[in-house]
Amino acid sequence: MSDSTPVWLVVGLGNPGPSYAGHRHNIGYLVVDELAARMGSPFRAHKSGRADVVEGRLGAPGTPGPRVVLMKSRTYMNESGGPVKQLATFYKVPPERIIAVHDELDIPFDTMRAKLGGGDNGHNGLRSMRSSLGTGDFHRVRVGIGRPPGRQEVADFVLSNYSSTEKKVLPFQVDTAADAVETLVTEGLERTQQKFNS
Q: Which catalysed reactions does the entry list for this protein (predicted)?
């Protein structure tokens, strides 16, 4: 990526490894996987050794869309800030062109919201990013997972698989969240919120 157009860094938050793959906490990984498929590129190891990346462009076919780096950290969720900071420095991406895609307890399943800045709401991935970047002023695509049923602990809930009913809807939710990321980099936050904030 040598030309001078600005780069967006899209961070799919999750935990690496097959044992975590289907968890609610890993929705960020699923969304960046979908974006990678749209870009027609597989993830590959970044030379930092701490993340897997895809470099390319997002947007309508035939139009040179914005330059985007998709990223999945190889660290656990609570340490994802370090690799994000490394890649932001490497690709010269300021915080306002970073998008974190993450699970959100306070939004019902199958809904989502985009926003810029804010707290971390107890989310370890966001907390780690904020700590490493020194600011919370990055974009978020918040994918709803809802609250745990009954008295289930939040930690157990986010680190568990989707229900069989949810699994039927999940591909559509992933697709919509990927659409929201595309809209954010091509049309901006306001348009994204109008289209996707449920």
A: an N-acyl-L-alpha-aminoacyl-tRNA + H2O = an N-acyl-L-amino acid + a tRNA + H(+)
